[in-house]
Design goal:
The complex is a heterodimer of chains A (287) and B (596). With 287 residues, chain A is of the alpha+beta class. Chain A is 29% helix and 15% strand. Chain A has one domain: Alpha-Beta Plaits. Chain A is built from ten helices and eleven strands. Chain B is elongated, with a radius of gyration of 32 Å. Chain B folds into three domains: 346 residues, Up-down Bundle (Formate dehydrogenase/DMSO reductase fold); 31 residues, no CATH class; 96 residues, Orthogonal Bundle (Cytochrome Bc1 Complex, Chain D, domain 2). The chains are: A alpha+beta (287), B mainly alpha (596).
């Protein structure tokens, strides 16, 4: 029992050691992004893929499958997307030792000069091995995380061929490594896995707003409500890209900017992920 | 005499390893996975390597006592007891590491495929879930088996239980290690892939377990030739597997090959195997070699990437596991000394020459009219052995238990939302059969033979305490942790206090209907009928209490705290009242219309 008490209670003990009161500045985040670009991982091995279609999962939506396309002809690897993502999602900094090892918390990694984030695979290998069901799939095609249910076994990280998942080794708030720039996104606790969420908070916000206003409109006009398609939403990285190389949208919506941008383009995905049906793909060259 | 002084030295060595080890362990517990080094690719490190290593060692005892017993291979009690004791110690150590390596330890119970009060169900697609169930059952049954053996010394009616339990444990050992190998083989890490992994893991486990037992026998001052020969044979099997792995993937662990592949072949030299030091050193070399192999397997980028190196916590954890084993094993060995080296229990031989002689005699028998002899002595008609008759009913109960578990879990919510099939719960089926069967077997046997009397008072209290503890744990896991409302409100709610009609349509109308009457279709199909919102009822309840119900829920009504503010809830109450008034007027008008 004593062993059990020590095992389950000890990480809840009050923090011993230096607690930093100073929040990191944006400059520190910029410097870390610059450092991460110099320590870029090896290049992606891209293979041609078809445009993603409707999900074949049980419960999947027939209206929505969100995704992105990254135009490698336009992208110059400036890293602004990494910074924007960190500020939007309150991604913490890492300690100096971890930075030296190249172990950053950034949700977007540079593979040579190509940005790579979680591809939100249709048959995601990480979700299959998660013992608690914390890694799961939404009907809209996002590979989502339930942070409160994560036990931190890191099995999902092991099973992602491209290490898109990042583990919270440190309590970054207590070490003064994180700052909550965005009140919408909760900071993650120590010991849980996190990764690109495709800005799920923006999508959920838009959905709630749409349902509220359209339900009211339906009562007034009596016209049946059109399903929500997530029109007008953009992820932080797509918003921040100076060359508009990242396009966010809905693969199943003909009017989506994503479908329009990829219509005459050749699509690619990393070789290791191609067979799992990634929702985030790369485009190069005209068809 | 030499044996006991060596044991003393090892006990102090254990203490020397344990004291810094427990410090490292404490720091690792407190700091979490950042304390030890983790592989850049697999996020796993020394704890998992230690887990695989110690769970492998744990298989020796069950192999030697249960499988040998089931197959009728003669082994003296003393050796079997030592092996089983080492199994229990190894299992206890192996069980600690997968728990302590978690990022959020207190969430470990979410791995158990057992729905909690919120209807959450573990992802039975994950090998970790299978792993947890198998090892938990294996631990419980090993403990029971060991206890039965201890009791059998005092009360001979317990002896009858040993063989049926051994038959249940036999497949369970193989099952458990197959599942442990699936933790690795079912991932996408290239070094870990291969359909041969279960065989490879079982061979490695048996090999390391035999090396441990042989080492412990050296410590005791005697030897069992059978186990030495078995160890040599398994080393050849493992060499073949390593060769296969090398040809397939080009992976080769030189230290494991030399320490656990080449050096044990010295057992073929008579002068080496006859010296106690020689046997002890060979066992030690095999253990080191297999540890190195497990370690390089769990951390494939160790030594390849510069970012991966061992720190003091890693070394401390290794010392902790070894030190704990020495202390636990030698301590228990001393406590149970009367059981282990009692003259009455010792019917084996010191150097194995007896068994060898028997075997030679048997071999000579085979030469001539052996068939008749064997038929007379050892032929038993199918389905008629005593252990089968004892096991028949419990096994049927176990199978019934599995059928019940399968139907129950197939009805879980998770199976509707994810592609889960019966195949995903297949790996936990045998452990369930084993657990249920053995519980039924013991209860029935105790009941029939009135064995409760032979248990001591302490044992009865212990069982009662364990049952209460188990119940408390299960209850706590069922209830889950406290849930606090999320402090993160969507901004569109914060920006404006919304129009109550909009809120009503968005939040309430799905059940209560846009006009305040029920949404008939939805309510009838999915939910129990909510309370009628008549004007009388609303007036009788008051604004505050209704707002309280909206915010905190009641019965089937959901709580909206965090999604609605207090003022909005009050505004909704007013809106509700307006709708009720409208409905009442409408009803009156309708009634008047009918009269007209």
């Amino acid at each position: 029992m004593a062993v059990a008490g020590i095992l389950f209670g000890c990480r809840k003990l009050p923090f011993v050691g230096e607690t930093s009161s100073a929040d990191p500045t944006i400059r520190q985040f910029q410097d870390e992004v610059r450092l991460a670009i110099t320590k870029a991982k090896e290049g992606l091995d891209l293979v041609r893929v078809q445009a993603p279609g409707a999900l074949s999962l049980p419960d999947a939506s027939r209206d929505n499958r969100f995704g992105m396309a990254i135009d490698l002809d336009a992208c110059d690897g400036c890293g602004k997307c990494i910074l924007a993502c960190s500020l939007e999602n309150n991604v913490p900094l890492v300690t100096a030792e971890e930075a030296a090892k190249g172990r950053f918390m950034h949700w977007i990694d540079m593979h040579e000069a190509a940005p790579f984030m979680c591809a939100h695979c249709e048959n995601a290998p990480c979700e299959k091995v998660c013992p608690t069901g914390a890694a799961n799939h939404t009907p809209d095609g996002l590979s989502a995380m339930t942070y409160k249910r994560c036990a931190g076994s890191r099995f999902c990280g092991t099973n992602c061929p491209l290490q898109a998942r990042k583990f919270n080794y440190n309590d970054s708030r207590k070490l003064g490594l994180s700052h909550q720039f965005n009140a919408e996104v909760p900071p993650r606790e120590k010991g849980v896995m996190e990764k690109c969420s495709m800005c799920i908070h923006r999508l959920q916000e838009d959905r709630a707003r749409y349902k509220t206003s359209s339900a009211a409109a339906a009562v007034v006009s009596g016209v049946p409500v059109e399903p929500w398609r997530g029109r007008g939403v953009k992820t932080a990285c797509a918003e921040s890209c100076p060359k508009n190389a990242i396009v966010f949208g809905n693969w199943l919506d003909e009017k989506s900017p994503l479908v329009e941008a990829t219509r005459n383009r050749q699509l690619y995905a990393p070789r290791q992920l191609a067979k799992f049906g990634p929702s985030i793909v790369y485009m190069m060259g005209r068809r | 005499m030499k044996g006991t002084s060596l044991q003393k030295i090892l006990f102090y060595l254990g203490l020397v390893l344990f004291i810094p080890g427990i410090l490292a362990f404490g720091s690792a517990l407190y700091n979490g996975p950042s304390a030890w080094s983790t592989d850049a690719r697999s996020y796993w490190g020394v704890p998992i390597a230690l887990f695989v290593f110690w769970i492998g060692l744990a298989h020796a005892g069950t192999l030697l006592s249960a499988i040998f017993l089931a197959l009728g291979i003669r082994l003296d009690h003393r050796t079997a007891m030592l092996a089983e004791l080492s199994t229990l110690c190894c299992l206890a150590i192996a069980g600690i590491f997968p728990l302590m390596h978690l990022g959020v330890i207190e969430n470990f119970y979410m791995v158990i495929p057992f729905a909690d009060a919120r209807g959450n169900f573990a992802n039975v697609m994950s090998p970790l879930v299978w792993d947890f169930c198998c090892i938990a059952v294996y631990g419980i049954l090993s403990l029971l088996f060991f206890w039965t053996q201890l009791k059998a010394k005092v009360n001979s009616s317990f002896e009858k239980l040993r063989k049926p339990v051994a038959w249940i444990l036999f497949p369970l050992v193989l099952w458990v290690h197959t599942v442990v190998s699936l933790d690795f083989a079912s991932t996408l890490v290239p070094e870990w892939r291969g359909a041969f992994f279960p065989v490879y893991f079982i061979a490695g486990a048996v090999y390391s377990g035999l090396a441990l037992v042989n080492g412990l026998l050296c410590l005791e001052g005697y030897r069992v030739r059978l186990l030495e020969r078995l160890m040599l044979a398994v080393s050849w099997l493992l060499l073949v597997v390593w060769l296969w792995n090398f040809l397939l993937k080009g992976d080769f662990c030189t230290s494991a090959f030399i320490l656990a592949g080449v050096i044990p072949q010295l057992l073929l030299v008579e002068s080496v195997r006859d010296s106690r030091a020689g046997r002890g050193l060979i066992s030690l070399s095999v253990l080191f070699g297999l540890w190195a192999e497990r370690f390089y397997m769990v951390m494939p980028s160790f030594g390849v990437s510069q970012n991966c190196s061992l720190n003091y916590t890693d070394l401390g954890l290794i010392a902790f596991s070894a030190g704990t084993f020495f202390l636990l094993f030698l301590g228990l060995r001393r406590v149970l000394a009367s059981y282990v080296s009692d003259a009455g229990t010792f019917f084996g031989e010191v150097d194995g020459s007896d068994i060898a002689k028997n075997e030679i005699a048997l071999g000579e028998n085979v030469g001539h009219d052996s068939r008749d002899d064997q038929n007379k002595d050892s032929y038993v008609a199918p389905w008629s052995t005593e252990e089968f008759r004892l096991l028949r009913m419990p096994l049927l109960c176990g199978i019934l238990g599995v059928v019940l578990f399968s139907t129950w879990s197939l009805n879980q919510n998770a199976f509707e939302h994810v592609y889960l099939t019966l195949v995903n719960i297949l790996p936990v089926m045998y452990p369930i059969v084993a657990l249920v069967a053995i519980v039924v077997l013991y209860l029935r046997y105790f009941w029939r033979n009135n064995l409760w009397k032979s248990t001591s008072k302490i044992e009865r209290y212990l069982v009662a305490l364990l049952l209460v503890m188990g119940g408390l744990f299960a209850g706590a896991f069922y209830a889950g942790g406290p849930s606090e409302p999320s402090p993160y409100e969507p901004t569109f709610l914060k920006e404006t206090v919304s129009e109550p009609s909009l809120l009503w349509n968005a939040r309430c109308s799905s059940c209560h209907g846009t006009d305040g009457n029920f949404n008939q279709k939805f309510v009838r199909e999915f939910y129990p009928v909510p309370q009628k919102l008549t004007l009388d009822r609303l007036d009788s309840l008051g604004v505050d209490s209704l707002a309280h119900v909206i915010l905190n829920g009641r019965g089937n009504m959901n709580a909206y705290l965090g999604r609605l503010t207090k003022t909005e809830a009050k505004a909704l109450v007013e809106y509700m009242r307006m709708l009720a008034r409208n409905n009442e007027q409408k009803n009156e008008r309708d009634a008047v219309g009918e009269v007209d």
